[in-house]
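Researcher: Here's a chain I'd like modeled. Treat it as a single chain, no partners, no ligands.
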Amino acid sequence: YYYFDPVTYLRVDNDYRQSQWGDWYLFGNDGRIQTGVQKWAGTYYYFDPVTYLRVDNDYRQSQWGDWYLFGNDGRILSGLQKWAGSYYYFDPSTYLKVTNKNFTFAGMALHADASGIITGQNRNSSFMLSIYQAALDGWHQYGVLPSVTAAQAILESAWGESALATEGHNLFGIKGSYN
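Model: Modeled as a single isolated chain. Structure tokens:
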């Protein structure tokens, strides 16, 4: 498939264009529609080989056999990512899932098992991993630094070990009544 500009009637090369029916497609240097993992606008995306549409929020196998995670906006992801209920770590250089390895990320001593699922190597790292996403969400939504959220949770809950934390799921020691 090719795309021809509706004004100039010329073939469009190396561009991401919206079709007459509203879907977006990537066209390569030779004008052909692109599939698989493709570099576009400084990052990588995955385009389905059947529909030719960009794939968002999915783990896909590339045309050369490696697997990559793509986010809500279609961009390839790296670093610590939550996928299908578990954390995984994707190498920032290769974008590949790390397996069978101990490593440190954001001060956490972590372990990737054979399937790539991440766990903390010790009690403190396990606690930090358990609040990681919530601390990031608080930063994005309210502007509270993740380090401040983590420090407050550590202080108030004794690294998640206090009775209020273990029995009441209360990491911040907030008490009161609700009617």
